[in-house]
Design brief:
Number of helices: 11
Strand order of the largest sheet: 1-2-3-5-4
Helix content: over 70%
Strand content: 5-15%
Number of domains: 2
Distance between the termini: 33 Å
Order of helices and strands: HHHHHHHEHEEHHEEH
Length: 393
């Protein structure tokens, strides 16, 4: 056995130990996630119970307030005509008034304490959701790394797979898109539904707290607007993470919706020439086209000051071409790319280049200050073409 073969064998053994350690860490994180989910369910149950108690106490406070007003009216009558009532009646009226007042204040304090507890539970529940999201993200990253270590790395050491880098790129992209799709579905089915329900329940609260508490109603109105804003933001996040119309309506319609949404409050006029997409163009390529278009229009909207833009999408038997141009102020492409790479800024622009390179595509940006910008992207339409492109390099 030569030294090179021995070195590869040793590296292989070390890799196996690393893989085992990482895999064990992943299992531990999954166990932590399960524990957090259990805690989350307990918090949800406690929160529902507290909400029920709050509603019950509010009704009791309202009832005691009405009794207090009634007994105070009774005391006013007694005070106005002492001669009509015996000392025993007067004493009883005052004692009852005092008792109701004490009970009323006690219930109000109880209501305040329950509201504070409800707020604490809501914050704790929100924190558990964030922890679960972060932990799942870590697990996803670990899984991608493990897949690489278990497959492509070891095969590369043995020089048995010349295309491992390409397949790793595809694997990472697919894992990222699967994660985006999962998060989008979870948010859509969870927080978005709860927020919509909260908006409806706020209207009910209007009636509950109408006890001449103007400031309370004002605060409630602000809360309602805040929840509406949050709901809008969640829906925007869903569309950004994984536009559901990409699966339902197809790439072209999704691009149209995205551009309309991004430019509806601007003076930018966009002309579209999109060739109908065929099934032979793989989903991962369609996602790439959407993401690239999204990032380009982010740049156009933020920096170009353009009034007109054009998007052209065409394809043949092996490649597709995406050309996006604008009549904006333009920029020095070479200097900008150097600055981006040196300072690790403009992740959107670098993301476009990384995505195109991972899919064995080509990208060219032509721009001069004052003459507008044109992005030309060439991508293979499927894995077979990607493989051929990889071999030819």
């Amino acid at each position: 056995m030569g030294n090179a073969e021995l070195d590869i064998s040793i590296i292989g053994e070390i890799s196996k130990k690393i893989i085992a350690a990482i895999d064990s860490s992943r299992d531990q994180i999954l166990e932590i996630i399960d524990n957090i989910r259990t805690e989350q369910e307990n918090l949800k149950a406690q929160l529902e119970a507290i909400k029920g108690e709050v509603e019950k106490v509010i009704n009791e406070v309202d009832g005691l307030e009405k009794q207090d007003k009634a007994i105070r009216k009774r005391l006013a009558e007694v005070s106005a005509d002492f001669h009509k009532y015996t000392e025993q009646h007067i004493k009883a009226a005052y004692e009852k008034a005092a008792d109701i007042r004490v009970r009323w204040y006690t219930k109000k304090n109880e209501e305040k304490a329950l509201r504070e507890k409800r707020t604490q539970l809501e914050m704790a529940l929100k924190k558990t959701m964030k922890n679960i999201q972060n932990a799942e993200k870590v697990v996803s990253q670990i899984s991608i790394a493990l897949g690489y270590l278990e497959g492509d790395m070891l095969s590369a050491l043995g020089n048995t797979n010349q295309n491992s880098e390409m397949f790793l790129g595809i694997k990472i992209l697919e894992a990222q898109e699967d994660e985006r799709r999962r998060i989008a579905r979870d948010i859509h089915d969870g927080p978005a539904q709860h927020m919509a329900n909260a908006v409806m329940r706020v209207d009910i609260c209007d009636m509950i707290i109408q006890r001449n508490l103007k400031e309370g109603l004002k605060e409630l109105a602000n809360l309602k607007e805040s929840v509406k804003t949050a709901l809008k933001e969640v829906r925007n996040i869903i569309f950004d993470l994984r536009p559901m119309s990409l699966d339902d309506l197809g790439l072209n319609e999704t691009i149209k919706e995205m551009i309309q949404s991004m430019t509806k409050e601007s003076e930018l006029d966009v002309k579209l020439q999109l060739k109908p997409i065929r099934e032979k163009i793989e989903p991962i390529i369609q996602v790439a086209v959407y993401r690239i278009t999204q990032e380009v229009f982010n740049n156009i909207k933020k920096h170009s000051k353009a009034k007109l833009a054009e998007v052209r999408l065409d394809f043949g038997t092996q490649h597709l071409m995406l050309i996006i141009s604008d009549n904006g102020i333009g920029f020095n492409v070479e200097e900008t790319l150097k600055e981006v790479k040196a300072k690790a800024s403009s992740y959107g622009l670098m993301g476009i280049f990384d995505r195109v390179n991972q899919l064995q595509g080509k990208i060219q940006i032509k721009s001069l200050q004052g003459t507008g910008t044109t992005y030309t992207v060439k991508l293979p339409i499927n894995r077979e073409v990607m493989r051929d492109e990889k071999r030819s390099h």
